[in-house]
Design a protein that fits this description.
Length: 122
């Protein structure tokens, strides 16, 4: 379990270093998650030593939102002034996500249907 937790922290550290060195406009933890994803894709599966600490963190995920909630309270006045910008960005990003998800599902469904037809002919 300790090995998996160290691996998670190492990926986050590598993500932070990558962002600082490259100047990417992406948070370090996001870059770290991409590094972890690439590593898992290469490995082909999630090792047990990584699954256990990840499940433990997910189990307590709600605690990680407390700092964000406090940040919202600190900037409540600014949020009250600029609420419409947030509302528009939430609606637009939700619509873009829905459109891309629907498009991707259609493509994957066509691909799956084509694969089933090919396997049925053999």
């Amino acid at each position: 379990m300790l090995v998996g937790f160290i691996l998670l922290m190492l990926c986050q550290l590598l993500g932070e270093i990558l962002v600082v060195v490259s100047g990417l406009p992406v948070p370090g933890p996001v870059a770290g998650m991409l590094i972890l994803l690439i590593g898992l894709m290469i490995h082909g599966e999630v090792p047990e030593s990584l699954r256990l600490p990840a499940e433990g963190l997910i189990r307590h995920l709600s605690l990680l939102f407390i700092p964000a909630g406090v940040g919202l309270l600190v900037h409540l006045e600014r949020l009250a002034q600029e609420w419409w910008i947030l509302a528009i960005s939430l609606v637009v990003s939700t619509l873009v996500t829905l459109v891309i998800t629907a498009w991707l599902m259609q493509r994957l469904q066509k691909k799956q249907d084509g694969a089933e037809v090919m396997h049925g002919d053999q």
